[in-house]
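Please predict the structure of the following assembly.
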Amino acid sequence: MNTDCPLPIATEQTIRLGHGSGGELTQRLLRQFVLPHIDNAWLQQGHDSAALPIGNTQIAFTTDSFVITPLFFPGGDIGELAVFGTVNDLAMSGARPLYLSCSLILEEGLEMDILQQVMASMGRAATATGVQLVTGDTKVVERGKGDGLYINTAGIGLVESLQTITPQAIEVGDAILLSGDIGRHGIAVMAQREGLEFGFPLASDCAPLHQPVQALLNNGIDVHCLRDLTRGGLATAMVELAETAGLEFWISEDHIPISESVQGACELLGLDALYAANEGRFIAFVPAAEVDSALNLLAAHPVSREACVIGRVNAVAPRDRGRVIIENTLGCERLLERLPGEQLPRIC
Amino acid sequence: MNTDCPLPIATEQTIRLGHGSGGELTQRLLRQFVLPHIDNAWLQQGHDSAALPIGNTQIAFTTDSFVITPLFFPGGDIGELAVFGTVNDLAMSGARPLYLSCSLILEEGLEMDILQQVMASMGRAATATGVQLVTGDTKVVERGKGDGLYINTAGIGLVESLQTITPQAIEVGDAILLSGDIGRHGIAVMAQREGLEFGFPLASDCAPLHQPVQALLNNGIDVHCLRDLTRGGLATAMVELAETAGLEFWISEDHIPISESVQGACELLGLDALYAANEGRFIAFVPAAEVDSALNLLAAHPVSREACVIGRVNAVAPRDRGRVIIENTLGCERLLERLPGEQLPRIC
C-alpha cells in the first residue's frame, strides 16, 4: 500500500510520496527548496490562510489542490472536499468565506459522467456553505499524466472580526478544544482504497466548519487560534502550532474522542488515529475562563456537537518551548512528534 | 505529435485533449458539464478574472493551472509562466496585481534541482511584477500520475479604476489594438517539444502585461475591454469577445504583426499563427479618437513597443452580431472561427 520509507533522509535528490504528507518531510521540502525563493511575512505566519490588507479591507486568501484517490469515498467526494477544504482554511483565519476559484486538471479519457457528478457535488457544497465559485480554469493532460481529475480551489474570505487569530496569539493558560472525534476521513479513504470491510460503518468526517467558528466569534469568545485537522492528523497540527507559537502544549489521550470504528480499524491495521487525516475537525485555543461558553456554542452545531477540552498551554522554561506532551491512558507522558513521512498518500 | 481529432463531436463520453484547447471544445465542455452546476453572474461575464466586491473594496480574482511540457522552453519556464499568466489575467480586468497563491502538484521522482530552478524562477517573476506569493499548498502524486510538476496560481488584484473593463463595454466604432507580434509562445514550445530547429531564433513571448495596461488607465485612456492572448491564439480571443459582446469585429491580416521566424515555422509545419498560443500579448478596445494616445503610451513599454491597430468594431444588423471578419492580404474577407479542437496540447 505504501512503499515509501517513513524515515526522513537528510539529503533527498528527488521527490518522494512523503513530501506530500503534510508532515516533517513536507516542512523540510518547503524550508529547503521553496521558501528560500518566495519567502515573505505572510508565509512566515505559518497559518492556513494569509490575512491581507487590500484597499481598506482585510481579507483572508488560501489555496489547496485536491489529488485524492479514489474520487468518491464513503461520506464524500473530491468535489465536496475541494469546496469544504478551502472554506475551512478561510474559517480558521476567522474569515467569512465568500468566493472560490475552481481549476480543473482533467486526464484524457476521464468519463464525462464522473466530471458531471463531481461538478454537481461542488455546486451543492458551494450552495450549502454560501460561497460563490466565481472564476475557473480547465486543463487536459494526456492519458498516464494524471489520475482522472485534480481540482485546485483558492478562496477569499472577509475578515470582520478584530481578533488576531494566529499561532502567535496563543497564550499560556489557554484551553485546547477539539471539535469532535478524529481520524474518520483517513481511515474511511484507506478502507475504500484497499477494499477493506470492517463490519462496522466508516465514513469520512468531510464537512464545512465555518458555522461553529462564526458562532464563537459572533458571541464574543476570545479565540486565540484555530486549526483544522487535515493531512498528518491531530498530532501534526499540534506540533506545528506548538513550534510556531513557541509554547508547550499538554494534551490527554483519554480526552481525545475516537469512534469505535476508527479505533477498531486502527488496531487491525496498526495505525495511530492521532496521525490519521480529518476533513471536518478543528482545534481552538481559548482562554480557560471561556471554555464553558465556547463548548455550549459548539454543541449547538451538528459538526461540533461533541466538542471537548483535550488539553492546555503550559508555562515552561524556554528550552521546553515548541513541544507537545501527551499523557496516555495509564498516566504516562511522552513527547508527540509530527508525522515523519507518509502514513497514507493522496488523502486529500 | 497530436493524435486528437480536430473535428468536434457532439456527444462526447470522455475527456479528449481538445477539451483543454481553450477553443470550441473547451467552451462546450464548460457549457454542458460545468456551468449547469456552478453558474453565477461572475462566470457569465466570460472575463479573464472576476470583479468582486469585498467589504467596501473592489477586487479582481482569477486562477490558472499550468501543465506545460516541457517545463523549460526557449524564453521562459513553467514558474515564470505561472506568475506572469495570473498577473496578466488580473491586468486584463484593469486591476493592480497584488497577491498570488502557489499550489504545487509534484510527481514522485521529480528532481529537486528542477523544483529549485522553477521556484527560483517564480520568485524572480514575482519580484519583477511586484506581487507577493502569500499562500501555498504542496501535494505529491505517484510516479505515472503526473508529469513532473503542475502549478496552480490564483491571484488577487485591486481594482482602482472606475472604468468597467468587460466584453460588454465594447462599443461600435472602437479600434482594436494588438500589443505586438503573435504566436511566438506556441511555436517556440512546439519547436522545443519536437526537437525542431529552424535556423532562425524562436523564443516565447512570455512576459507580464500589467505595466502597459496601467499606463493606459493611469493616463485616462477610456479602455473598454482587454484580453490577453493565450491558448487558441488571437483568433479564438477575437471570436470569444465578439460573441460575448454581441458585436461584429473586422480585422485585417495585413496589420497583424508576425515575426519572420514564426511565419517561417508556421509555413513549414502547416500551422496558422492566428491560432498559435501567446503568453505576453494582449488586445485592447479603445475609442477611435484615443488610438494615437494609446499607441504612444504602449510604445513606451518594451513588451508593447510594436503595438498597432488591427481592426475595428462594426455597426451591423442583429443577425451579424457575434462574428469576426478577417480581410486577407488579397483584400478578400472571410469569417474567423475559434480553434475547434487542439492545435497543440499542454501549451500553458
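Chain B touches chain A through 81 residues (CB under 8 Å). Residues 190 and 284 of chain B are 27 Å apart (CA to CA).
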